Amino acid sequence: MFRDVLFRVFSLGFLIFAMSLLSSPAKAVSLSFQSSDIDLDGCHITVNGSWDVELKLYSLMGEAIESTRFRYSLNPGLTYVSLPALDGSHSYFKTSLKEIPSNARNLLQLYDVKIRFRLKTGLLEKPFVYLISDVGNPGKPDGKTWSFNVPGSPDWGRFLTGEPGGSYLSASDAKKLFASGLELAEATIVSCKLTEYELQNWYKSNTKWPEVRAMHKAYNYLSEAIRRSTGLNPPIYRSLHVNSTVHTIRDSVIEDHDKWLRMFQNKVKKLENLPDRFITDDNPKPYQAALAEVPKIIAKIKDYVGNWHSSDVDPSSLPQGYPPQVPGMYQLEEKDDGIWVIDSSGTRFMKLTGYMELLGGTHIIETFYMGCSKKPGVQTIKVINPQNGDLLKQFDFPCNRVGKRAHRFEALNVEPVYQNEDKEAGELKAIKLQVINDSGKQLGASPKRCSGMKAVNFDVRAHNYRVELPHLTLKDLGETTIRLQRSLGDAFCLSTG
């Protein structure tokens, strides 16, 4: 069940964070600004809430890069949802999110959210341009958690428009306007979709309303059969709304359903155990047929509910984004108290240890080594966000050849891989790893005491990997044989003459 929903935004409060623009065309130019809407209007009388969005734009090696992250919350009193009737009709009923228990409200989720940014340029002949951005997977509506999309690199000719919903500006015009400097003037959510998948499955697992309806039907069926078989007139409960489309869920929904279910279960049990003195030989068949039918009525609704599945979009199937890493954004600064990661304005972010290295201005690589001479160990590489020190990914490689060999080669070599192999201006594309965990084959004779020989060549096996950035996925490139030297023996002799 897909529903397109349209947000209309009337008032926006903007908080603009201006970053220094790097003047060199060989390096990245980056902007960052954040907007907050405190009065989000309704959406087809279905969704109402508030939101924040952050847009990052930068140019790298002549290409446009953009990324958006988003967070939002929903107003329970002005947001309406559809829940399954679970009565075999395949229908749904509307209810306010406020009527859902608070612990289940965040199960509702938006996706395919598209935002139109109005950007002020530095040129009088074209004061404003527009950009449409998809925020990716927005996540839960808790109003706190920022979710990330996957940073994209659109063609310059499909990047900016001159009017809302207008045609794209040419590549040359887009580059010119981008270079003039951009400021955020307005942000509007123009479309999105809503998935109730998790909320509907929660309702299915927690509601007793289908069983209440089944028990109500079973009770009335038994009552009518008893009237026909005995002449007695048990009351018929016609006041219960069997059609769930007129039933309103309240905060106490579970307790209300349990109460109704227990009541009808007790009444059905009494009618199923009618004393023998009320059953005559005149017409026992209607009552006997009803006794056989009651278990079928109950089993049928339980089977239907158990096999029901939401047809809405499963949030776990949506692509998961990641925070954008702006190429060339960070650099190193050596001070008396150590080496720090800083940005172009000189702001400090984190201090490096002896095991850390900043690669390409985007990622910190941290390596550790655990020896394998006595027992198996691991060689580890950690990929860290320079801005906050968060661990983005960790890769562990075994060094597992156990033995008492005198000369072992165990190392983890890290080499950055740049676009076009341009380490000054190029974008960091990947990290090449070379894992050596075997002593290999010794070439030539071992040095003898006082021989003056200082090294012996070895052919060793090295396993090669490539870590793709920024996705941080590991590719196995296979084994190679390389030649290394290791100093051996005693190269210092005493003179005896």
UniProtKB/TrEMBL annotation:
Residues 1-28 form the signal peptide. Keywords: Signal. The keyword Signal applies. This is Uncharacterized protein. It comes from Cohaesibacter celericrescens. The lineage of its organism: Bacteria, Pseudomonadati, Pseudomonadota, Alphaproteobacteria, Hyphomicrobiales.
